[in-house]
Amino acid sequence: MSDEYDLIVLGAGPVGENVADRAVQGGLTAVIVESELVGGECSYWACTPSKALLRPMQALRAAQRVRGVDGGSIAPAEVLARRDGFVSHWSDEGQVTWLQSAGIDLVRGHGRLTAEREVTVTTDEGERVLRARHAVAVATGSDATIPDIPGLAEAHPWTSREATAAEQVPESLAVIGGGVVGVEMATVYAGLGAAVTLIARRGLLERMEPFAGEQVAEGLRGLGVDVRLNTQTTAVRREGDAVTLTLDDGHEITTAEVLVATGRTPRSADIGLDVVGLRPGRSIEVDDTMRVPGSDWLYAVGDVNGRALLTHQGKYQARAAGDVIAARSRGEVIADDAWGRHVATADHAAVPQVVFSEPEVASVGMTADAARDTRQQIAVVDYDLGSVSGAALHADGYQGQGRVVIDTERDVIVGATFVGPDVAEMLQAATIAVVGEVPISRLWHAVPAYPTMSEIWLRFLEQYGRQSA
């Protein structure tokens, strides 16, 4: 292998893979540097294993919500075995084979920026210096944040990695944090038979519409989870096989394991950012083409830039970055206007997300509060999803809610949220409406098939018409 490439990528997760792949498709040579498994966090310790764990419980609950289905149970060992298959038993052989087929070289080791367009990799054999003719892209991801709670680090808590890779189900689990990881893992382990306590400093899913967190809290309680809101953990101690958490209300909880799910920190502390004038341990600021301001060669893509900590958004950024790196190498005109192919415009106001909790939450774009903060003239349209014919047929006693946020000056939807069983598959229609800025008058002609849950779109339009009259 050469030591000089057109593009060097730090990090072989889905984001780094996509940056390299798009650049190679654009005619460049590329190498990826990775110290762990090729495929990254999403493939082995996040998206893939967590959804593999969640799906059996979702399928069972879906069946049990329909009259005429009798019984059914979860087999925890089989659930874990199914998860193992989806993560290839933590082997990256298949991912490495894909890199080779895509024409992307791999160097295993820890890479650091050591000069302009230069990366030094510490490998098992020593150090290897790589040089980039055109660009270096940092796609190193993020790590779970361990808050500064007395005794917590010494108690060896689980993070999302341990939670998604566990070989056995603990008898009990305390979850610190009310965000996506917290509620999803509480859903998993309650479904697998553990006694789960979830402790949130405020509410659940606070970046979403308030009703989303409220309904998820109710759903988790229905699974037997002890949900404690507006509560802080003040101290943690481990004694043998037991962990005791002291709460700010004076109560103590003793559990077999404790999971910390309080956010993510960019993995940028030891990659040589100081050499290029950036602060280690921080998110790397970029423009909409993912290039670091003031540089003509350094890019940061995915979690490490702090824009949208979601795998699908990172891959979206990666497609833009790989294409623009190739285009700039050829001196082509860059399509960096809003919604151009070389920019990640959707990061600002059209980010879709699904929380695979009980119930599911699917959202895209702005919440009502966020839209108001931009001083837009807005209308908020809420509708009971359970009263839609398709939902009533989908599950007996279906409970859920939908909301759209409408910019009344432009008459377009700028945000949508759905809560309820199986709402994830409704999200793409909302995403297209937001990204495409489809006028309300045109949406009347997007007729929802009957009887499906998508009929809620017609109800939104009818309700908006009544509110506007």
From TrEMBL:
Residues 5-313 form the FAD/NAD(P)-binding domain. It comes from the Bacteria. Residues 351-456 form the Pyridine nucleotide-disulphide oxidoreductase dimerisation domain. Keywords: FAD, Flavoprotein, NAD. Its cofactor is FAD. Belongs to the class-I pyridine nucleotide-disulfide oxidoreductase family. PANTHER family: DIHYDROLIPOYL DEHYDROGENASE, MITOCHONDRIAL, DISULFIDE OXIDOREDUCTASE. This is NAD(P)/FAD-dependent oxidoreductase. It comes from Microbacterium commune. The lineage of its organism: Bacteria, Bacillati, Actinomycetota, Actinomycetes, Micrococcales.
